[in-house]
Amino acid sequence: MASVLKVDKLDPQSGTALEIGTSGDTISVPSGATLDISASTLTPPATMPASSGVNLTALNATQLTSGTVPTARLGSGTASSSVFLAGDNTWAAPGGGIDCDADAWSRVAPVTDQDVAAVIDWATSIHLGSNVTESGGVITVGTAGWYLIGIHISNQSAFSDNMSMQLRKNGATQLGRIYWEGNTEINYMGMQATVMVECAASDTLDVYGTGYFSGNTNTDSVTWFTGVRLGA
Questions:
Q1: How many Å is the maximal CA-CA distance in the chain?
Q2: For residues 136 and 122, is the Cβ–Cβ distance under 8 A?
Q3: Distance, CA of 42 to CA of 21 (rounded, Å)
Q4: Low-confidence ranges of the chain (pLDDT < 70)
Q5: DSSP 3-state assignment of 72?
Q6: Residue 106 pLDDT
Q7: What are phi and psi of 26, to 5 degrees?
């Protein structure tokens, strides 16, 4: 039968160190009892024993003087260089923005001088994004959204005294016809427009022109068709 020692206070016989038990012993505080050390200093060992942190509620992060917290222990989901830790403690991809390389194009000058009433076919692609395709002057977009479109057509010739242009989506006019009527004394005519158009994926855009369009790439005769998807 275990003996019970009933005292109100234990003090060391000499000095200030009090040892309880011997190495290998287990010192237990029974359920329902309270070990109150709130007015004392508790010096933990260099290596903390395994324990649950369920009741650890006030760990001040400023006390972490070295090392880093691994991302595996931060938030839910998978951390990577393309996501950030959101306020709801989840790893999320950034929203909005635009990938200009993927959703933009810039075409310049008709293939040749054209006296036409047709879709303008462009000679050069300064830029054609990976989500954009072009065939015979017709742009097909790969991403839904609002696109900012710029057009300039020019005529450096005395062969025609009028010209017009329309921006079309899926073959239907989006920009009302812009028309220039001059006379045979004019050797240069030009017109341009900037417009925003909402597109679904796989919609087509083209510039339909009438008149004589110069295929020259001289600085005084530049014809171009460009666009970029606006950020969400």
A1: 125
A2: no
A3: 18
A4: 1, 96-99, 111-115, 155-161, 181-189, 212-222, 232
A5: helix
A6: 93
A7: -110, 120
Do 208 and 229 form a contact (C-beta atoms < 8 A)?
Answer: no
In angstroms, the first-to-last Cα distance of the chain is 78
Q: Which H or E run contains 110?
A: strand 104-110
Report pTM.
0.57
Task: Report all structural domains of the chain as residue ranges with CATH numbers, in order of start.
Answer: 104-229 (2.60.120.40)
pLDDT on residue 221: 53
Residue written as tokens 């310049």? 108
Instruction: Determine the Cα–Cα distance for residues 28 and 94; give it in Å rounded to an integer.
Output: 52
Indicate the SS3 state at residue 62: helix
* Residue 31, CA distances (Å) to 9, 35, 38, 62, 145 in order: 21, 11, 19, 34, 65
pLDDT score of 29: 85
Amino acid at 60: N
Beta bridge partners of 35: none
pLDDT of residue 232: 58
- 91 within 8 A of 78, measured Cβ to Cβ: yes
